[in-house]
Amino acid sequence: MVGRLEKRGDVGVLWINNPPVNAINRAVKRAIVDGLADAEADADIHAVVIACEGRTFIAGADIKEFGQVDAGAPATDTPDAMAALQRFPKPIVSAIHGTALGGGFEITLAGDYRVATPTARVGLPEVKIGLLPGWGGTQRLPRLIGAAAALELILSGDQVPAAAALEMGLIDRIADTDTNTDLVDAAVTLAREKAPLGLRRLDRRAVDPATAADAVFAAARERIARTRRGQHAPERIVDCVEAAARLPIDQGLAVEADCFMRCMRHPQSRALQHVFFAERQAASIPDLPAQVRPRPVRAGGVVGAGTMGVGIAMNLAGAGIPVTLVDSDAAALDRGLAAIRGNYAASVKRGRLGTEQAAQRLALIRTSQSYADLADADLIVEAVFELMSVKKAVFAELDQVVRPDAILATNTSFLSVDEIASATSRAGQVVGMHFFAPANVMRLVEVVRGATATSPETLAAAMDLARRMGKVGVVAGNCDGFIGNRMLNAYLHQADLLILEGATPQQVDRALVDFGMAMGPFQMMDLSNFDGLPRMRRDRGIERYDPRSVPVCERLVALGRYGQKTLAGYHDYSPQDRTPQPSPVAQQVIDDVAREFGIARRQFTDEDIVQRCLLALANVGFDILAEGMAYRAGDIDVVYLNGYGFPSHRGGPMYWIENDVGLAQALERVTALGDWTGAAWLKPSPLLRRLVAEGRGLSGLSEWSRPPVPAPAAAA
Ligand code: COA
After folding, report:
1. pTM score
2. What is the set of active-site residues?
3. Under-50 pLDDT residues of the chain
4. Nearest CA to ligand 1 atom 32
């Protein structure tokens, strides 16, 4: 039963039970309406407590139901449940454990009092799926905590822990313990205490005018234009909160309903809902035998105290795992430790980490110059120079000294995990864990499963570790560049050609940033400092590259223009300011190379640039799927959203090519682009052709077309 009214003397406890997260669907709404009707009819009941069974209070509307909403019809039949709450004549206390999010928190706001467990969290995360709180949250929250604070909370979508929530006035009381039984007892006590005082509904209050000056909304709009480029929902949120401050509640609710429907009908919301489910799906490994359990990682090691090693050590410490950071170079270890201290100090200063928490994490990291100190580690991540010979030497040595059951992970961005594993006697316990710089900040980890290396247990352990580190782990097959960098190559290739054909690096960057990318391809190159690139390309085999796309980078390196660290790369930089400026020197190099290849110069629109770079990028995604190097199109999207700055409101490159471009259009354009670029360097993926020919989409792909991922070798 989804709803149940339990009578505790003069207090009715309305239990909701809709696993796994008590999301509000029609059945839950019905349970609320019926439960309240029974409680109202019962003259012995003087107050009601709303409580939830299972792991959490109501975690929001059922996002799966959103897809069923007819664009013309009202969003849901919620008004019934909300109206029932609004007109309920007895005090309502919400008993919050787990997370009261979105519609869940809005239900509590429609009542009178909120009591929570110490570990509970509350928030209105709708903005993260391109929506706004549409059940009165934009009207009632400002009446509770003021317009400025409400704007901040709704625009961020952040979850607020109980202690902070109490301080902000979001809840009234924190229960002594975390058990749901005790919580409900505390809520019943509160209900008895407050029942004689009557109702305390937010609907009857006005927003504190001191928090709602015109300047508050102007500043919010200005900030959104800067930080939420191209996003629809944040602007509507400001409209709604402003309405809360300026209009009576009925009119404010009408503004909210209108804005909610506008968001719901906007393609961005569908794209963001796709992202929500894709991120959760990425965590599941479809062909993992049911009996496989991830072996817990209790102690970790990191080899290489460079920037990546430092970030990875911090990730392990952040998950509460003691870690030994090994580097043969004492000076590198000192620098690494100083960087770790600096990063923690910066986090404390920004309020992201408490002083004590930072100290605890720091205490979990020890340094050593000897591999022998990795003897206790369950999992060691290698983060040394990106050269096969170097990696293999490290793995051969580690294999000799670490525990026989230890897992060895390589933080490589494109090298073969199988070949690295071949240097060991434990191929089944070798896996790729490709972190993204800065590794302590970026959410993505590509977990690379070898074709011969990586047992199911090892794969599960690496994915579990990624989760514990607060990362999004995505399984990738062992191909050159895995998912992300393999696709990036095609993208950068087009960017390299575009500047030879007449676009400037500034124009290419701007067009892609205007599309929503976090930065343009040349800014990205400059940020990553590309002095190692010519050597890496030779190491991989220069014949793999379009000869036209190589010389500009090589000549910039020869001129000492490595990127931001030399204040010069494709762009120029000043020491005080990382804003890219046009570089006459780089432009001269580009012009020279274009002339030498006899490339005709022409004009490009921003649309041309975006289409060229992103169609080439997404086209590779089809090959990756066809080869079974990614389990699902959504996994590729998750990689690009979390590792490469693809705008989440566009859903990821595969979602974009299917929904914004359309597969048939995409095939036509990629074919034309391939003819232009040269078939040796770009041709439409056979899978894209096949999907178009068969009139299929990407969503059902995993079940019908993809060859299985090569079976991994058993654990050594
Ligand atoms: N609607 C539908 N399904 C939901 C859901 C929602 N609002 N919230 C969570 N789920 C599903 C997840 O898809 C997942 O399903 P699966 O097991 O089939 O993959 C399951 O519930 C558990 O969610 P998960 O995120 O894996 O668990 P968690 O414990 O890490 O996190 C939450 C729980 C509630 C914090 C998290 O799921 C969340 O943030 N949900 C969204 C809340 C939200 O945005 N609410 C407002 C909607 S308007």
Report:
1. 0.90
2. 106, 126
3. 70-77, 79, 703-716
4. 59
